[in-house]
Amino acid sequence: xxxxxxxxxxxxxxxxxxxxxxxxxxxxxxxxxxxxxxxxxxxxxxxxxxxxxxxxxxxxxxxxxxxxxxxxxxxxxxxxxxxxxxxxxxxxxxxxxxxxxxxxxxxxxxxxxxxxxxxxxxxxxxxxxxxxxxxxxxxxxxxxxxxxxxxxxxxxxxxxxxxxxxxxxxxxxxxxxxxxxxxxxxxxxxxxxxxxxxxxxxxxxxxxxxxxxxxxxxxxxxxxxxxxxxxxxxxxxxxxxxxxxxxxxxxxxxxxxxxxxxxxxxxxxxxxxxxxxxxxxxxxxxxxxxxxxxxxxxxxxxxxxxxxxxxxxxxxxxxxxxxxxxxxxxxxxxxxxxxxxxxxxxxxxxxxxxxxxxxxxxxxxxxxxxxxxxxxxxxxxxxxxxxx
Length: 388
Prior knowledge:
Number of strands: 14
Largest sheet: 6 strands, parallel
Order of helices and strands: HEHEHEHEHEHEEHEHHHHHEHHEHEEEE
Shape: globular
Strand order of the largest sheet: 3-8-7-4-6-5
Helix content: 25-40%
Structural class: alpha/beta
Distance between the termini: 16 Å
Number of helices: 15
Radius of gyration: 22 Å
């Protein structure tokens, strides 16, 4: 989902294109919880006042009907969901309990083809270094998009050719990435992410069933889990203890019901819905600028770091250094850009590993800090790299 508030005239002039349209929101479960209610109300606005039809799609459909205003009839459009789930079921979940990196790596080294998804960038890198033999790959957002695309193409080639292929990834692979592994390992997470990870296992139904192993990482990683992931993990444990089949529709429904109840007022952390309702009561005096300032789907500030790894990227870097800025150039440079959180970004600046061109863009000058295997090394001190 990609919702932004249209506060400027140019954005507002585009709204009419959504009127009387069918608007599809794919991966609906990815709406950040601090902005869930504003997102739902934005969808309700399109339906009620613009005559649009909103379709929310997901393998893990969140329970959102109670969050819509009573005027909106939110309903399931697929019939016989329980029968469909049983027919298309391709995986079996297996709880391995707690595994440290050594034990997990031993299991992965014994697999011919397997995908392992973890929550933290640092664990992904540590596990990658423990794997042995050919066909070992790493994926994270510390690799620029063009680099990730090339690695994914090689992964797909090896899977199709039935060659050795073990992949360590952060959660970026869980949605929108078409790969088919005979076995998947997933660090403890919310039920939604666990089921999304299962979508990379036996995806094409070539086997009767594929194992999805879920495990608890060692304490060193659990202690650095970001706050926004801790509640889904906690609620997920409750569902795992209660339901025999944690991917069944009733288990997913229970997960989201418990999660949203536990989050409470945090579903509108910045009071955006209340600000609109107060504006309506004050004769339509809406604080659009303030609301837009408080509406950030990506809460943590990141900095774009351009990676000039090949000749094309180096040519783009020179154009950027010469002060050139245009839409075509910025579109091309996105393929070579890594977004770095503020703390490691400041550390990289401090050791002069990056060159800041302006407040929004920097260039990596110490290319030794970019690996063809694991991407950008943004760790200057002993901090943990977190993937969200």
